[in-house]
Each structure stands twice: as C-alpha cells, then as structure tokens.
Amino acid sequence: MTDAMGTFRIDIELENRSGVGPCCGVGGVLVDSGSELSWIPAPVLESLGIERLKVKRFRQATGAIVERWTGKARVHAAGTFTTDEVVFGEPADLVILGSRT
C-alpha cells in the first residue's frame, strides 16, 4: 500500500505578540510537518517590531547545521491564531509554517 504525499501552501498573517499594531500578510507559506517552528523572513518580523530573543541551532534537510535568531509572534492561519516562537529567516531560507504553529 502506498500513500500519496504532497505539499500545500497557505496564506498567513503575523503580528507582534502583544496583538497591538499592524498585521503583515505572508502568502504561499509552505506547511511543513517536519519543521517544529515557523520560518518567516527576518524583514517581515522586524517590520512588526518582533524582538530577537535567542539563537538556536537547526539541522537542515541537507544535514547542514545553521544558527538563526528566534522571537515570539502572533500567527493567524486558517481562521485561528496562536502566539509561538518563530525563526528569523535569512534570504536563502524557505518560508515555512511549522507543525507546532
């Protein structure tokens, strides 16, 4: 028996975890059940005043280890929202909605 596997993308909105201030829409975000955290371009998070709180290490699908800053954001998706830790993505990083978010 084989299972058909695929990927899908959704549009999300982000805002500062305080819920005060502007929202920023990000379209076509890859939903990745293999990633715990969501990866968002750093300029988007910075424009919302989201603080860089700590540096974490991540293992990429290629096996490479990278270090990225993380912070807290309110993420709106599929008619609901949550506050979660998000990764400040760099230009070559995918934009991902992680499994925890």
The total strand number stands at 7
What is the H/E order?
A: EEEHEEEE
As a percent range, the share of strand residues is over 45%
Given helix and strand content, the structural type is: mainly beta
Give the radius of gyration. Answer: 14 Å
> Number of helical runs?
1
Distance between the termini: 31 Å
Largest sheet: 7 strands, mixed
Contiguous uncertain segments of 5+ residues: none
- Give the fraction of residues assigned to helices: under 10%
Query: Could you say which overall geometry the principal axes of the C-alpha atoms support?
Result: globular
Mean model confidence by pLDDT: 90
Summarize the structure in words.
The chain has 101 residues and is mainly beta. It is built from one helix and seven strands, in the order E-E-E-H-E-E-E-E. Strands 1, 2, 3, 4, 5, 6 and 7 form a seven-stranded mixed beta sheet that branches. A hairpin with a 2-residue loop joins strand 5 (65-77) and strand 6 (80-89).
What descriptive keywords fit this protein?
seven-stranded mixed sheet; 6% helix; 101 residues; 7 strands; 53% strand; mainly beta
